Amino acid sequence: MIVLRHCESEFNRLFTATRRDPGIPDPPLSDHGQAQARALAPALGGQNIERIIVSPFTRTLQTAAPLARALGIRPTIHPLIRERAAFSCDVGSPPARLALAWPELDFSGLDETWWTAGIEPPEEVEERAAIFRAEMCASPVWQNTLVVSHWGFLIAFTAASMENGSWRRIDPTKPLPAI
């Protein structure tokens, strides 16, 4: 499978410059992040992707959109792969608002508040990652799946830090390397 960290968001852009939380809930991609997302279609187009699973945050949805259009794949929304709650950007949008922005996607499986309130302990993120890993291992098409997620979740899922817009192939059936 391929895991992809969302492209640069407005939160990432501002936080990188100031090292302070800029107070932006569910931020969109920055201009640079939008360019990164557009570049994913040629970069990943030949990777035999048959399924795209995406976190319900705006930045992951915007990251997945150009590639999904190019491949003719409707992404599946999966709140389990959301970011570890720690900053303002980790407050999501209600399903009705997301459905207005992406009417072609199905948000009906989301709770009204699907994100984690407050700061999420690392153990809870690791538990979510283990549950998702088990789901992927049980899937007959995990090899052809793209997962669009977040820094904190992907650390728990892959045991590696990833930059915005970066991707890598992993085998969820193999044990995680020691951190």
UniProtKB/TrEMBL annotation:
CDD domains: HP_PGM_like (cd07067)
InterPro entries membership: His_Pase_superF_clade-1, His_PPase_superfam, PGM_Phosphatase
Record-linked Gene3D superfamilies: Phosphoglycerate mutase-like
Name recorded for this polypeptide: Histidine phosphatase family protein
